[in-house]
Amino acid sequence: MQPRFQAAFAALPSPLQAALQPLLTDTFPAFFTPEQMAAIRTETGLDNRELTFALLPLAAACAVAPLSRFNVGALALGRSGHLYFGANMEFSGATMQQTVHAEQSAVTHAWLRGEKGLEAITVNYTPCGHCRQFMNELNSGTALRIHLPGREPATLGDYLPDAFGPRDLAIETLLLDEVDHGLTITGDALVRAALEAANRSHAPYSQALSGVALQMADGAIFAGSYAENAAFNPSLPPLQAALILLNLAGYDVLQIQRAVLAEAPDARLIQRQATAATLQALGCATLQTVPLR
Ligand SMILES: [Zn+2]
């Protein structure tokens, strides 16, 4: 088991510990398949809602919060039945704008794993305004169910009344919709991963597609796609998307060996400087940029 889960795991009820023990290996991918969820429910007698709440401390254990020491965990339930972990992330030496919220982490995790829509988000603290707006970019719209400990089930519409979103700007392709921008994918594995991430990015407001791919010492690659928001500020940069996957896979954000950013040199928005600055704060001094074609 990854050391970060040990304390949260020790506090779980014994039947749940027994059901989770074989799954929480060193290479646990921070999501459960529908089949695994069904098996855990059968073994523990918990229903889906009870089980998801019980798993929140494990998601929160993935937080990287050197600034706040405030661990937020989120779980995104996909239409496919998969349950994806998410947790907040902060980066010492970068700006506050570079931080990632737990809901953004869970949503982006589901998206980059190929999920096509979300049913529900469960969080251990009430979603901040920023995250309510971020989630309103999803193709589930305000019907997304929000589950909080001790509260009645509600929808995003309940938490974000009179919402402003992509539909107000006549945007038809929403976050988690399948997209293929038709970019040419060539280069070595890391460059291709960055280009493929850009090819799936959600940038309907600027058209400034971008993707980042990060390589670790053991060769593992994590690629993140840019996700814009109708309200602009809750947009998630491609580096953060890649860092979410890296962290949830159990890797250390301070151990990145190589980084590639794919974007057009003449795009209306440019990620390069912000990406390089945050990478530098994480001890990764060089950022290779590849132009989109
Ligand atoms: Zn938030």
Automatic annotation (TrEMBL):
Gene from which this protein is expressed: cdd
Active site per UniProt: 103 (proton donor)
Name the UniProt record assigns to this protein: Cytidine deaminase
Positions bound to substrate: 88-90
SUPFAM superfamilies xref list: Cytidine deaminase-like (SSF53927)
Lineage: Bacteria, Pseudomonadati, Pseudomonadota, Gammaproteobacteria, Enterobacterales
Residue ranges annotated for the CMP/dCMP-type deaminase domain, each copy included: 47-167, 185-293
Keywords: Hydrolase, Metal-binding, Zinc
Enzyme's top EC category: hydrolase
